[in-house]
Task: inverse folding
């Protein structure tokens, strides 16, 4: 038992050493601009913030490959002291490069409908994918005055469905063992050493939260 | 020591910063005062680039109360219609291009939108082969306007796999060591080959001898890009099987086996698989095995002063096992290494018969089901795991359920070799003389999983989970269930087990470090 505990403690030490990886999951604070426009609340990101960092050089170059790139933005407004959203919205923006017309075809989809447009330049395609400017985020009647809220964004580049992930990694769970340890297939666990590239749930994920805000009593 | 372990795990939990919750925010800021209604932004004409001050479309009609199940319309297609003129494969040095082409969900002559889902899925279909570190696609102009060339660029990776490592020391086996390795892409042909070997040096145990076992395997997961796959395996076991009986003048009054007999197994398995869907697979197999067992003439046990014949579930001398089997496997867990959601269901039935030319008439059914539920966000999960089997008829000893199959705190069999005779820990105080082999057995486990950390894939360690589980296991000969000489609880062939440990997903493989597993190497 002593050896078992020692082994586990060593493993825990490995896990702690790897803990910096958690930083990639950490939500990032950004100051945002909130405005009341009519009966809705709109939000804009402010420089140097925004979601542009979703695209590194490789992802930026990939916009011109002719293969669809998709940005999915999940917007939640939650009370400051709760994780339950008062309002949630999903936005999907996609672009494909037309190799023959040499322009970028964009599709911007939110619950209000789908907008299609095309732009000529690589940088403009990126701008349309990442711009968050006066974006309607909540009807005002869902945000009582003087109650404090926080806006949270989860932004994914080329998210992968759970079914696709399961398919890609299926061979890991099926194992290559033959017939002698048949019982182990049903009762046992497994350990395996191999070159194991990670297939992430998205090419890149950003988690952002805003400063707390409230609507002053008018 | 347990206290230290608990403290360590608790410290890990406490030290982990909350990821879902933002840190204590700064002072709330008021929303800027209501502005005069703005005119809806003017969309630029379809062919005009946006200027620096262009607004995004200003549509508020879609705002509703939170809907966590909101689903995006994923199949909407846009972009130009293209005709695939050719598919070029680049970057492959070992893997044959044809293997990659067969995995693609598209081919020359297909007409589709450039945003078509098949183009996005193609990357993952190729990655699912398991031969590549990365796959990327690009579209290039073809020879005629509207026609395109699809370039699939792959980055190959090492496909050598260390499947298992066996080592440990027990009373029965002074030491054992072995490994199972495989190559998943032999000569770039998409054929997986592998094999394992284990050697076990016997301990001070009546009739025991050194044991060894070997296995060779080959398989093709998809024959000529069809849903059918095939597999082949050959096995050799030179074993020494412990049993509870009187031998070498040592009366078998204790619960643990006292002596062993020699046997040899030589067998081959041929199988076929059929992928019903991406996550569901059917399997079929036949097995033929020759057994040569050197059994004691009339093994008996002393049970309360009464000699009782022991059934070793083997024919003396030479015998054969010939079986046919069918199996079903469905795995919906998005991450089989660090699962937090989804389930896996597997069931397998095998029929052995003298009609096929064997010496044993029997049937077995084994099944397992695991279900994971995320709780309180993505960082916690609860799992229920059920596994069990039943053996009907005159099954050979090796095809029965071994006690280590169901009690995770015992040394598991390795390539068919029994390496320990340790009795299970008696935690509940139920029946003491639980059988080594049974024809009815199973386990039920409840497991709590805590996500220690996750990386994005750029780190060497992708993720880690701590798990704590407890379960009930049971194993019996059905004949023993018909009568009892003690109270019901004291006669139940069940007990409990506890387990805790760490699962790691790294770029050099996956590891599960568990207390129960460590116990199994030492008892």
Result:
């Amino acid at each position: 038992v002593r050896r078992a505990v020692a082994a586990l403690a060593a493993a825990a030490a490995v896990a702690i050493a790897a803990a910096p990886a958690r930083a990639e999951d950490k939500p990032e604070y950004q100051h945002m601009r909130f405005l009341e426009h009519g009966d809705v609340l709109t939000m804009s990101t402010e420089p140097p913030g925004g979601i542009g960092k979703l695209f590194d050089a490789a992802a930026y170059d990939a916009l011109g490959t002719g293969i669809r790139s998709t940005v999915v933005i999940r917007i939640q407004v939650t009370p400051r002291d709760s994780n339950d959203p008062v309002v949630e919205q999903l936005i999907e923006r996609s672009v494909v490069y037309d190799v023959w017309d040499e322009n970028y075809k964009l599709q911007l989809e939110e619950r209000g409908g789908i907008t299609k447009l095309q732009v000529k330049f690589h940088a403009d395609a990126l701008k349309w994918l990442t711009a968050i400017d006066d974006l309607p985020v909540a009807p005002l009647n869902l945000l009582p005055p003087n109650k404090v809220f926080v806006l949270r964004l989860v932004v994914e580049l080329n998210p992968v469905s759970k079914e696709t992930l399961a398919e890609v990694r299926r061979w890991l769970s099926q194992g290559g063992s033959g017939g002698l340890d048949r019982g182990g297939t049903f009762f046992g666990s497994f350990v395996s050493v191999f070159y194991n590239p990670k297939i992430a749930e998205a090419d890149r994920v950003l988690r952002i939260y805003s400063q707390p805000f409230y609507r002053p009593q008018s | 020591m347990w206290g230290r372990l608990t403290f360590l795990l608790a410290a890990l939990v406490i030290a982990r910063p909350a990821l879902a919750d933002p840190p204590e925010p700064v002072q709330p800021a008021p929303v800027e005062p209501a502005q005069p209604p703005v005119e809806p932004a003017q969309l630029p004409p379809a062919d005009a680039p946006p200027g620096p001050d262009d607004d995004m479309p200003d549509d508020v009609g879609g705002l509703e109360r939170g809907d966590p199940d909101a689903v995006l319309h994923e199949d909407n297609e846009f972009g130009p219609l293209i005709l695939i003129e050719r598919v070029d494969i680049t970057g492959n040095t070992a893997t044959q291009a044809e293997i990659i082409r067969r995995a693609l969900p598209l081919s020359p002559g297909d007409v589709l939108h450039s945003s078509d889902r098949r183009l996005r899925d193609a990357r993952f279909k190729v990655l699912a082969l398991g031969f590549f570190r990365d796959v990327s696609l690009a579209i290039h102009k073809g020879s005629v306007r509207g026609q395109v060339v699809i370039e699939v660029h792959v980055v190959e990776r090492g496909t050598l796999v260390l499947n298992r490592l066996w080592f440990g020391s027990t009373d029965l086996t002074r030491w054992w060591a072995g490994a199972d390795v495989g190559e998943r892409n032999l000569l770039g042909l998409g054929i997986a080959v592998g094999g394992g070997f284990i050697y076990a040096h016997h301990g001070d145990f009546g009739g025991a001898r050194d044991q060894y076992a070997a296995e060779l395997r080959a398989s093709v997961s998809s024959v000529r890009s069809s849903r059918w796959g095939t597999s082949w395996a050959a096995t050799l076991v030179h074993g020494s099987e412990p049993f509870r009986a009187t031998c070498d003048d040592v009366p078998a009054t204790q619960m643990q086996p006292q002596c062993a007999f020699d046997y040899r197994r030589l067998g081959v398995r041929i199988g076929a698989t059929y992928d019903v869907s991406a996550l569901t697979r059917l399997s079929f197999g036949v097995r033929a095995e020759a057994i040569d067992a050197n059994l004691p003439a009339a093994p008996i046990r002393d049970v309360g002063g009464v000699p009782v014949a022991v059934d070793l579930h083997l024919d003396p001398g030479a015998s054969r096992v010939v079986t046919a089997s069918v199996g079903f496997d469905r795995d919906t867990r998005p991450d089989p290494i660090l699962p937090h959601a989804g389930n896996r269901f597997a069931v397998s039935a095998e029929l052995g018969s003298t009609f096929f030319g064997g010496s044993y008439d029997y049937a077995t059914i084994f099944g397992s089901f695991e279900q994971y539920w995320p709780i309180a966000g993505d960082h916690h999960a609860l799992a229920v795991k059920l596994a069990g089997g039943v053996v009907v008829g005159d099954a050979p000893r090796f095809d029965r359920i071994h006690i280590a199959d169901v009690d995770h705190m015992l040394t598991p069999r390795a390539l068919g070799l029994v390496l320990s005779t340790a009795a299970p820990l008696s935690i509940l105080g139920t029946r003491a003389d639980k059988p080594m082999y049974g024809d009815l057995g199973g386990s039920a486990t409840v497991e709590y999983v805590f996500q220690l950390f996750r990386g994005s894939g750029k780190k060497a360690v992708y993720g880690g989970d701590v798990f704590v589980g407890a379960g009930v296991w049971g194993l019996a000969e059905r004949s023993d269930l018909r009568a009892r000489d003690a109270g019901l609880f004291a006669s139940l062939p069940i007990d409990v087990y506890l387990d805790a440990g760490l699962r790691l997903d790294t770029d050099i493989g996956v590891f599960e470090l568990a207390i129960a597993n460590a116990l199994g190497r030492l008892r």
User: Anything to note?
Assistant: The mean pLDDT of chain A is 80.
